[in-house]
Amino acid sequence: MDWVRPRKFELALLVAIVGGLVFVLLTALERTREDVESSAVQTEVAALRVELLDRLTHRELYGGMVPDSRNPMLWVARRPAGYLGEIDTVPVEGGVWYFDRSRQALVYRFRSGRESCYKLVRGGEAPSALGQLSGIGLRQLGEVGKCVK
Questions:
Q1: What is the pLDDT of residues 124-136, one digit of tens each?
Q2: pLDDT in tens, 15-28
Q3: Could you list the residue ranges that cross the membrane (predicted)?
Q4: Which terminal residue of the chain, N or C, has fewer Cβ atoms less than 10 Å from its own Cβ?
Q5: Distance of CA 75 to the CA centre of its chain
Q6: Which of 26, 28, 39 is nearest to 110 (CA)?
Q7: Structure pTM?
Q8: Rounded to an integer, what distance in angstroms lies between the CA atom of residue 115 and that of residue 120?
Q9: Burial (Cβ within 10 Å: 0-12, 13-18, ≥19) of residue 38
């Protein structure tokens, strides 16, 4: 019977070690998922900037008007997956794009609840020419997770 007690202790120790390793692994996987989601948002914003440039180039070459809207999604032909449209309230679900009418900003709501906001700026509205495309720019508001008005 003496061999039973040490075996239970070894099993409990093994379960505690494996549990700790699983916790560390799940924490690292969650951070990685957030990093991948953030990279996808930045990629989508870069694609939107290219589409804005394409729209403005077409207008310069062939004429025509640009939309009066502050919603950059009305300027481009393709909408990102999960785009909800123009709304007045913050959606409950995460992993979605929407245009916030009150802030006049394009917002991505992360699955964690953080937000990344972008504002369409025209001409002299941007503090510098950096990031502007022929007088039109898509400027990030604040740092990721903290959108400012």
A1: 554 554 444 456 7
A2: 999 999 999 999 99
A3: 12-29
A4: N
A5: 19
A6: 39
A7: 0.75
A8: 17
A9: middle
